[in-house]
Protein backbone atom coordinates (compact mmCIF):
# COMPACT_ATOMS: atom_id res chain seq x y z
CA UNK A 1 0.00 0.00 0.00
CA UNK A 2 1.03 3.62 -0.48
CA UNK A 3 2.90 5.02 2.47
CA UNK A 4 1.00 7.15 4.92
CA UNK A 5 2.88 10.45 4.31
CA UNK A 6 2.06 10.14 0.63
CA UNK A 7 -1.65 9.55 1.35
CA UNK A 8 -1.74 12.38 3.87
CA UNK A 9 -0.85 14.90 1.16
CA UNK A 10 -3.35 13.45 -1.33
CA UNK A 11 -6.50 13.03 0.75
CA UNK A 12 -7.75 16.57 -0.12
CA UNK A 13 -9.56 15.04 -3.10
CA UNK A 14 -11.72 12.91 -0.82
CA UNK A 15 -14.75 14.63 0.69
CA UNK A 16 -14.06 14.54 4.42
CA UNK A 17 -16.54 13.02 6.86
CA UNK A 18 -17.21 14.87 10.12
CA UNK A 19 -15.22 12.43 12.19
CA UNK A 20 -12.50 14.06 14.28
CA UNK A 21 -10.41 10.96 13.58
CA UNK A 22 -10.15 12.06 9.96
CA UNK A 23 -9.51 15.79 10.47
CA UNK A 24 -6.27 15.41 12.34
CA UNK A 25 -3.08 16.59 10.69
CA UNK A 26 -2.15 12.95 10.33
CA UNK A 27 -5.25 11.05 9.22
CA UNK A 28 -5.06 7.37 9.97
CA UNK A 29 -4.52 4.90 7.17
CA UNK A 30 -5.83 1.46 8.03
CA UNK A 31 -3.43 -0.71 6.06
CA UNK A 32 -4.11 -4.19 7.41
CA UNK A 33 -5.90 -6.02 10.17
CA UNK A 34 -6.11 -9.29 12.02
CA UNK A 35 -8.52 -10.31 14.76
CA UNK A 36 -9.51 -7.19 16.69
CA UNK A 37 -6.32 -5.37 15.73
CA UNK A 38 -5.45 -3.11 12.78
CA UNK A 39 -2.16 -1.66 11.55
CA UNK A 40 -1.63 1.81 10.14
CA UNK A 41 0.65 2.98 7.33
CA UNK A 42 3.53 3.33 9.81
CA UNK A 43 3.03 -0.26 10.99
CA UNK A 44 1.69 0.86 14.37
CA UNK A 45 -0.99 -1.43 15.74
CA UNK A 46 -4.32 -0.49 17.33
CA UNK A 47 -6.98 -2.44 19.15
CA UNK A 48 -10.12 -1.55 17.17
CA UNK A 49 -13.00 -0.65 19.50
CA UNK A 50 -14.97 0.81 16.59
CA UNK A 51 -14.95 -2.22 14.22
CA UNK A 52 -14.85 -0.02 11.11
CA UNK A 53 -18.06 1.64 12.39
CA UNK A 54 -19.55 -1.64 13.61
CA UNK A 55 -18.99 -3.34 10.24
CA UNK A 56 -16.27 -5.85 11.10
CA UNK A 57 -18.35 -7.77 13.57
CA UNK A 58 -15.94 -10.75 13.61
CA UNK A 59 -12.82 -8.60 13.34
CA UNK A 60 -10.32 -8.70 10.49
CA UNK A 61 -8.93 -11.36 8.20
CA UNK A 62 -11.32 -14.03 9.46
CA UNK A 63 -10.18 -17.34 7.90
CA UNK A 64 -13.70 -18.76 7.25
CA UNK A 65 -14.91 -15.54 5.63
CA UNK A 66 -11.72 -15.13 3.58
CA UNK A 67 -11.93 -18.73 2.33
CA UNK A 68 -15.60 -18.37 1.32
CA UNK A 69 -14.96 -15.09 -0.51
CA UNK A 70 -11.91 -16.54 -2.29
CA UNK A 71 -13.98 -19.53 -3.43
CA UNK A 72 -16.61 -17.19 -4.83
CA UNK A 73 -13.98 -15.00 -6.54
CA UNK A 74 -12.65 -18.07 -8.34
CA UNK A 75 -16.07 -18.66 -9.94
CA UNK A 76 -15.66 -15.33 -11.74
CA UNK A 77 -19.10 -14.19 -10.59
CA UNK A 78 -19.11 -11.21 -8.24
CA UNK A 79 -21.95 -8.95 -9.30
CA UNK A 80 -25.47 -8.65 -10.79
CA UNK A 81 -27.91 -9.97 -8.32
CA UNK A 82 -31.67 -9.73 -8.22
CA UNK A 83 -32.35 -10.96 -11.81
CA UNK A 84 -30.85 -14.39 -11.25
CA UNK A 85 -30.83 -17.24 -8.81
CA UNK A 86 -27.74 -16.93 -6.67
CA UNK A 87 -27.00 -19.76 -4.26
CA UNK A 88 -25.43 -17.64 -1.52
CA UNK A 89 -28.26 -15.10 -1.75
CA UNK A 90 -30.93 -17.79 -1.36
CA UNK A 91 -29.01 -19.37 1.53
CA UNK A 92 -28.60 -16.03 3.25
CA UNK A 93 -32.28 -15.15 2.81
CA UNK A 94 -33.22 -18.46 4.46
CA UNK A 95 -30.87 -17.72 7.34
CA UNK A 96 -32.05 -14.15 7.85
CA UNK A 97 -35.70 -15.21 7.59
CA UNK A 98 -35.16 -17.95 10.18
CA UNK A 99 -33.58 -15.67 12.78
CA UNK A 100 -35.73 -12.61 12.11
CA UNK A 101 -38.51 -13.51 14.54
CA UNK A 102 -41.02 -12.37 11.91
CA UNK A 103 -43.78 -14.78 10.80
CA UNK A 104 -43.69 -15.78 7.09
CA UNK A 105 -40.87 -13.39 6.24
CA UNK A 106 -39.38 -12.25 2.93
CA UNK A 107 -35.95 -10.65 2.51
CA UNK A 108 -34.82 -7.91 0.12
CA UNK A 109 -31.09 -7.19 -0.14
CA UNK A 110 -29.37 -3.83 -0.62
CA UNK A 111 -25.78 -2.60 -0.43
CA UNK A 112 -26.10 -0.34 2.61
CA UNK A 113 -28.15 0.57 5.65
CA UNK A 114 -29.34 3.78 4.00
CA UNK A 115 -30.84 1.92 1.04
CA UNK A 116 -32.43 -0.60 3.39
CA UNK A 117 -34.09 2.20 5.40
CA UNK A 118 -35.22 3.77 2.13
CA UNK A 119 -36.73 0.44 1.05
CA UNK A 120 -38.53 -0.03 4.35
CA UNK A 121 -40.04 3.47 4.10
CA UNK A 122 -41.13 2.79 0.53
CA UNK A 123 -42.78 -0.48 1.55
CA UNK A 124 -44.51 0.94 4.63
CA UNK A 125 -45.85 4.05 2.91
CA UNK A 126 -47.08 1.99 -0.04
CA UNK A 127 -48.64 -0.69 2.14
CA UNK A 128 -50.45 1.80 4.36
CA UNK A 129 -51.11 4.26 1.50
CA UNK A 130 -49.88 7.16 3.63
CA UNK A 131 -46.73 9.27 3.60
CA UNK A 132 -46.88 10.00 7.30
CA UNK A 133 -44.26 8.27 9.40
CA UNK A 134 -43.06 8.64 12.96
CA UNK A 135 -39.47 8.25 14.11
CA UNK A 136 -37.47 8.73 17.29
CA UNK A 137 -35.72 11.97 18.20
CA UNK A 138 -31.93 11.87 17.94
CA UNK A 139 -32.00 8.73 15.74
CA UNK A 140 -29.75 8.22 12.74
CA UNK A 141 -30.91 6.25 9.71
CA UNK A 142 -28.63 7.16 6.81
CA UNK A 143 -27.99 9.89 4.32
CA UNK A 144 -30.45 9.61 1.41
CA UNK A 145 -33.45 11.98 1.21
CA UNK A 146 -35.81 9.46 2.84
CA UNK A 147 -33.37 8.26 5.48
CA UNK A 148 -32.38 11.84 6.31
CA UNK A 149 -36.01 12.84 6.63
CA UNK A 150 -36.56 10.30 9.41
CA UNK A 151 -33.20 10.96 11.04
CA UNK A 152 -33.91 12.82 14.26
CA UNK A 153 -30.35 13.98 14.82
CA UNK A 154 -30.46 17.77 15.03
CA UNK A 155 -27.20 18.14 13.14
CA UNK A 156 -28.91 16.81 10.01
CA UNK A 157 -32.17 18.80 10.29
CA UNK A 158 -33.23 20.78 7.24
CA UNK A 159 -31.25 18.83 4.67
CA UNK A 160 -33.19 19.03 1.42
CA UNK A 161 -36.84 18.29 0.70
CA UNK A 162 -38.49 15.47 2.55
CA UNK A 163 -40.27 12.76 0.54
CA UNK A 164 -42.25 11.73 3.64
CA UNK A 165 -43.99 13.63 6.44
CA UNK A 166 -42.20 12.87 9.66
CA UNK A 167 -43.09 13.46 13.30
CA UNK A 168 -40.62 12.62 16.04
CA UNK A 169 -41.33 11.10 19.46
CA UNK A 170 -39.05 10.60 22.47
CA UNK A 171 -36.18 8.11 22.42
CA UNK A 172 -34.45 6.78 25.56
CA UNK A 173 -33.01 9.14 28.11
CA UNK A 174 -29.34 9.90 27.91
CA UNK A 175 -27.60 9.82 31.26
CA UNK A 176 -27.85 13.23 32.90
CA UNK A 177 -30.79 14.47 30.82
CA UNK A 178 -33.06 17.00 32.47
CA UNK A 179 -35.89 14.45 32.61
CA UNK A 180 -33.74 12.18 34.79
CA UNK A 181 -35.91 13.00 37.79
CA UNK A 182 -38.74 10.89 36.34
CA UNK A 183 -38.48 7.18 37.06
CA UNK A 184 -38.38 4.75 34.13
CA UNK A 185 -42.06 3.64 34.11
CA UNK A 186 -43.27 7.25 34.47
CA UNK A 187 -41.05 8.29 31.55
CA UNK A 188 -42.37 5.40 29.42
CA UNK A 189 -45.98 6.42 30.23
CA UNK A 190 -45.29 10.00 29.15
CA UNK A 191 -43.67 8.81 25.90
CA UNK A 192 -46.60 6.49 25.14
CA UNK A 193 -49.07 9.32 25.74
CA UNK A 194 -47.12 11.49 23.35
CA UNK A 195 -47.31 8.84 20.60
CA UNK A 196 -51.00 8.24 21.27
CA UNK A 197 -51.79 11.95 21.09
CA UNK A 198 -49.77 12.29 17.91
CA UNK A 199 -51.40 9.45 15.99
CA UNK A 200 -54.97 10.00 17.26
CA UNK A 201 -55.20 13.76 17.36
CA UNK A 202 -52.35 15.76 15.93
CA UNK A 203 -51.49 14.17 12.61
CA UNK A 204 -53.83 14.92 9.70
CA UNK A 205 -53.28 11.62 7.89
CA UNK A 206 -53.05 8.03 9.13
CA UNK A 207 -49.57 6.96 10.19
CA UNK A 208 -47.81 4.35 8.05
CA UNK A 209 -45.05 3.29 10.43
CA UNK A 210 -42.84 3.99 13.38
CA UNK A 211 -39.13 3.60 12.72
CA UNK A 212 -36.95 2.99 15.78
CA UNK A 213 -33.42 1.92 16.73
CA UNK A 214 -33.64 -0.28 19.86
CA UNK A 215 -30.36 1.28 21.02
CA UNK A 216 -29.50 4.55 19.26
CA UNK A 217 -25.99 4.06 17.91
CA UNK A 218 -24.87 7.36 16.41
CA UNK A 219 -26.61 9.11 19.33
CA UNK A 220 -23.91 7.46 21.46
CA UNK A 221 -25.37 4.05 22.39
CA UNK A 222 -28.50 5.33 24.14
CA UNK A 223 -30.95 2.47 24.76
CA UNK A 224 -34.67 2.90 24.93
CA UNK A 225 -36.05 2.79 28.45
CA UNK A 226 -37.18 -0.68 29.54
CA UNK A 227 -40.77 -1.15 28.32
CA UNK A 228 -40.65 1.85 25.96
CA UNK A 229 -40.55 -0.05 22.66
CA UNK A 230 -43.26 -2.44 23.92
CA UNK A 231 -45.47 0.50 24.93
CA UNK A 232 -45.01 2.05 21.49
CA UNK A 233 -45.63 -1.30 19.76
CA UNK A 234 -48.92 -1.81 21.60
CA UNK A 235 -50.23 1.57 20.41
CA UNK A 236 -49.17 0.76 16.84
CA UNK A 237 -50.70 -2.73 16.90
CA UNK A 238 -54.11 -1.44 17.99
CA UNK A 239 -54.14 0.90 14.99
CA UNK A 240 -52.54 -1.27 12.30
CA UNK A 241 -49.45 0.98 12.11
CA UNK A 242 -46.25 -0.84 11.14
CA UNK A 243 -43.24 -1.15 13.46
CA UNK A 244 -39.93 -0.91 11.60
CA UNK A 245 -36.85 -1.64 13.69
CA UNK A 246 -33.54 -0.29 12.43
CA UNK A 247 -31.08 -3.00 13.50
CA UNK A 248 -28.24 -1.66 11.35
CA UNK A 249 -26.07 -1.13 14.42
CA UNK A 250 -27.83 -3.32 16.98
CA UNK A 251 -28.19 -6.46 14.85
CA UNK A 252 -26.28 -9.78 14.72
CA UNK A 253 -25.72 -10.06 18.47
CA UNK A 254 -24.10 -6.72 19.22
CA UNK A 255 -26.43 -5.89 22.13
CA UNK A 256 -26.14 -9.38 23.66
CA UNK A 257 -29.22 -10.82 21.91
CA UNK A 258 -29.49 -11.62 18.23
CA UNK A 259 -31.52 -8.44 17.62
CA UNK A 260 -31.80 -5.36 19.78
CA UNK A 261 -35.61 -5.55 19.66
CA UNK A 262 -35.47 -8.93 21.45
CA UNK A 263 -34.83 -7.17 24.76
CA UNK A 264 -38.53 -6.28 24.62
CA UNK A 265 -41.66 -8.33 24.04
CA UNK A 266 -42.34 -6.96 20.56
CA UNK A 267 -42.57 -8.28 17.01
CA UNK A 268 -41.57 -5.91 14.22
CA UNK A 269 -43.32 -5.86 10.85
CA UNK A 270 -40.12 -4.85 9.06
CA UNK A 271 -36.52 -5.15 10.20
CA UNK A 272 -33.67 -3.21 8.57
CA UNK A 273 -30.15 -4.64 8.70
CA UNK A 274 -26.66 -3.87 7.32
CA UNK A 275 -23.18 -3.22 8.74
CA UNK A 276 -21.94 -6.39 10.46
CA UNK A 277 -23.71 -8.94 8.28
CA UNK A 278 -21.02 -9.05 5.56
CA UNK A 279 -18.18 -8.62 8.07
CA UNK A 280 -16.97 -5.60 6.13
CA UNK A 281 -18.40 -6.32 2.69
CA UNK A 282 -21.16 -3.94 1.60
CA UNK A 283 -24.53 -5.54 2.33
CA UNK A 284 -27.84 -4.52 3.84
CA UNK A 285 -31.48 -5.36 3.52
CA UNK A 286 -35.00 -5.51 4.84
CA UNK A 287 -36.77 -8.56 6.18
CA UNK A 288 -40.50 -8.28 6.72
CA UNK A 289 -43.95 -9.79 6.67
CA UNK A 290 -44.73 -11.21 3.22
CA UNK A 291 -47.93 -9.20 2.96
CA UNK A 292 -46.01 -5.94 3.41
CA UNK A 293 -43.00 -6.99 1.33
CA UNK A 294 -45.19 -7.91 -1.64
CA UNK A 295 -47.11 -4.63 -1.81
CA UNK A 296 -44.71 -3.08 -4.33
CA UNK A 297 -45.85 -3.89 -7.83
CA UNK A 298 -42.97 -2.26 -9.71
CA UNK A 299 -39.90 -4.40 -10.40
CA UNK A 300 -37.66 -4.56 -7.32
CA UNK A 301 -34.19 -4.57 -8.79
CA UNK A 302 -30.89 -3.73 -7.17
CA UNK A 303 -27.83 -4.26 -9.36
CA UNK A 304 -25.45 -4.93 -6.50
CA UNK A 305 -27.86 -5.63 -3.63
CA UNK A 306 -27.29 -9.18 -2.39
CA UNK A 307 -24.38 -9.74 -4.77
CA UNK A 308 -22.64 -13.12 -4.60
CA UNK A 309 -19.45 -11.85 -2.98
CA UNK A 310 -21.22 -10.04 -0.14
CA UNK A 311 -23.81 -12.75 0.49
CA UNK A 312 -21.12 -15.44 0.49
CA UNK A 313 -19.23 -13.46 3.13
CA UNK A 314 -22.47 -13.03 5.06
CA UNK A 315 -23.34 -16.74 5.14
CA UNK A 316 -19.85 -17.45 6.55
CA UNK A 317 -20.25 -14.58 9.02
CA UNK A 318 -23.62 -15.84 10.31
CA UNK A 319 -22.15 -19.35 10.63
CA UNK A 320 -19.41 -17.93 12.85
CA UNK A 321 -21.86 -15.84 14.92
CA UNK A 322 -24.03 -18.87 15.57
CA UNK A 323 -21.26 -21.48 15.99
CA UNK A 324 -19.44 -19.33 18.54
CA UNK A 325 -22.65 -18.05 20.16
CA UNK A 326 -21.39 -14.50 19.82
CA UNK A 327 -24.56 -12.80 21.14
CA UNK A 328 -24.00 -14.49 24.52
CA UNK A 329 -20.27 -13.68 24.34
CA UNK A 330 -21.09 -10.01 23.58
CA UNK A 331 -23.39 -9.95 26.58
CA UNK A 332 -20.73 -11.38 28.91
CA UNK A 333 -17.77 -9.37 27.66
CA UNK A 334 -19.92 -6.23 27.35
CA UNK A 335 -20.79 -6.51 31.06
CA UNK A 336 -17.11 -6.96 31.96
CA UNK A 337 -16.08 -3.96 29.90
CA UNK A 338 -18.82 -1.82 31.33
CA UNK A 339 -18.11 -2.77 34.93
CA UNK A 340 -14.39 -2.08 34.50
CA UNK A 341 -15.11 1.32 32.95
CA UNK A 342 -17.65 2.25 35.61
CA UNK A 343 -15.30 1.21 38.40
CA UNK A 344 -12.35 3.12 36.99
CA UNK A 345 -14.29 6.23 36.10
CA UNK A 346 -16.65 6.60 39.05
CA UNK A 347 -14.52 9.22 40.82
CA UNK A 348 -14.10 11.45 37.73
CA UNK A 349 -16.28 14.54 37.60
CA UNK A 350 -16.17 14.89 33.79
CA UNK A 351 -17.63 11.46 32.90
CA UNK A 352 -21.14 10.10 33.36
CA UNK A 353 -21.97 6.43 33.74
CA UNK A 354 -21.55 4.04 30.82
CA UNK A 355 -24.72 3.48 28.79
CA UNK A 356 -25.69 0.92 26.16
CA UNK A 357 -26.15 -2.80 25.86
CA UNK A 358 -23.74 -5.66 25.19
CA UNK A 359 -20.88 -4.42 23.03
CA UNK A 360 -22.66 -1.22 21.96
CA UNK A 361 -21.55 1.17 24.68
CA UNK A 362 -21.35 4.94 25.09
CA UNK A 363 -19.67 7.22 27.56
CA UNK A 364 -20.74 10.87 28.01
CA UNK A 365 -18.24 13.63 28.79
CA UNK A 366 -19.36 16.77 30.57
CA UNK A 367 -17.81 19.90 32.04
CA UNK A 368 -16.55 18.76 35.44
CA UNK A 369 -19.24 18.59 38.08
CA UNK A 370 -22.05 19.57 35.67
CA UNK A 371 -24.26 17.87 33.07
CA UNK A 372 -23.17 20.34 30.37
CA UNK A 373 -21.91 18.32 27.37
CA UNK A 374 -18.21 18.59 26.55
CA UNK A 375 -17.58 17.43 22.99
CA UNK A 376 -14.01 18.77 23.26
CA UNK A 377 -13.32 16.33 26.08
CA UNK A 378 -14.76 13.39 24.11
CA UNK A 379 -12.50 14.24 21.16
CA UNK A 380 -9.49 14.69 23.45
CA UNK A 381 -10.08 11.26 24.96
CA UNK A 382 -10.53 9.74 21.51
CA UNK A 383 -7.20 11.23 20.39
CA UNK A 384 -5.43 10.15 23.56
CA UNK A 385 -6.77 6.61 23.02
CA UNK A 386 -5.49 6.63 19.47
CA UNK A 387 -2.05 7.73 20.67
CA UNK A 388 -2.13 4.75 23.01
CA UNK A 389 -3.15 2.21 20.41
CA UNK A 390 -6.93 2.10 20.76
CA UNK A 391 -9.54 3.21 18.20
CA UNK A 392 -12.89 4.44 19.50
CA UNK A 393 -15.62 6.59 17.96
CA UNK A 394 -17.41 9.74 19.04
CA UNK A 395 -21.02 10.77 18.60
CA UNK A 396 -24.04 11.71 20.65
CA UNK A 397 -26.68 14.38 20.59
CA UNK A 398 -24.09 17.01 21.49
CA UNK A 399 -21.07 15.16 20.08
CA UNK A 400 -19.87 14.51 23.64
CA UNK A 401 -20.05 10.74 23.75
CA UNK A 402 -17.39 8.14 23.15
CA UNK A 403 -18.70 5.19 21.12
CA UNK A 404 -17.33 1.77 22.01
CA UNK A 405 -18.13 -1.11 19.65
CA UNK A 406 -15.37 -3.72 19.43
CA UNK A 407 -15.78 -6.79 17.20
CA UNK A 408 -18.01 -9.38 18.90
CA UNK A 409 -15.01 -11.71 18.98
CA UNK A 410 -13.12 -9.44 21.40
CA UNK A 411 -11.63 -11.45 24.26
CA UNK A 412 -12.14 -10.54 27.90
CA UNK A 413 -8.44 -9.58 28.12
CA UNK A 414 -8.68 -7.30 25.10
CA UNK A 415 -11.88 -5.74 26.44
CA UNK A 416 -10.31 -5.01 29.83
CA UNK A 417 -7.16 -3.66 28.20
CA UNK A 418 -9.29 -1.32 26.06
CA UNK A 419 -11.24 -0.21 29.13
CA UNK A 420 -7.98 0.60 30.91
CA UNK A 421 -6.72 2.69 27.97
CA UNK A 422 -10.02 4.64 27.89
CA UNK A 423 -10.00 5.14 31.66
CA UNK A 424 -6.39 6.37 31.66
CA UNK A 425 -7.18 8.79 28.81
CA UNK A 426 -10.28 10.08 30.64
CA UNK A 427 -8.24 10.55 33.80
CA UNK A 428 -5.56 12.55 31.97
CA UNK A 429 -8.16 14.91 30.50
CA UNK A 430 -10.23 15.25 33.71
CA UNK A 431 -9.14 18.76 34.63
N1 LIG B 1 -29.19 3.11 10.43
C1 LIG B 1 -28.38 3.13 11.49
C2 LIG B 1 -28.93 2.81 12.85
C3 LIG B 1 -27.02 3.43 11.34
O1 LIG B 1 -26.21 3.45 12.40
C4 LIG B 1 -26.52 3.68 10.03
C5 LIG B 1 -25.05 3.97 9.78
N2 LIG B 1 -24.36 4.55 10.80
C6 LIG B 1 -27.41 3.66 8.96
C7 LIG B 1 -28.74 3.34 9.19
C8 LIG B 1 -26.95 3.90 7.56
O2 LIG B 1 -26.18 2.84 7.12
P1 LIG B 1 -25.11 3.01 5.92
O3 LIG B 1 -24.04 3.92 6.42
O4 LIG B 1 -24.66 1.61 5.65
O5 LIG B 1 -25.85 3.57 4.76
UniProtKB/TrEMBL annotation:
Keywords: Aminotransferase, Pyridoxal phosphate, Transferase. Its EC number is 2.6.1.44. GO terms for molecular function: alanine-glyoxylate transaminase activity; pyridoxal phosphate binding. Coiled coil: none annotated. It comes from the Bacteria. It holds the Pfam family Aminotran_3. Gene3D superfamilies: Aspartate Aminotransferase, domain 1 (3.90.1150.10), Type I PLP-dependent aspartate aminotransferase-like (Major domain) (3.40.640.10). It is an enzyme of class 2 (transferase). InterPro entries: Aminotrans_3, PyrdxlP-dep_Trfase, PyrdxlP-dep_Trfase_major, PyrdxlP-dep_Trfase_small. Its cofactor is pyridoxal 5'-phosphate. Homotetramer. Belongs to the class-III pyridoxal-phosphate-dependent aminotransferase family. This is alanine--glyoxylate transaminase.
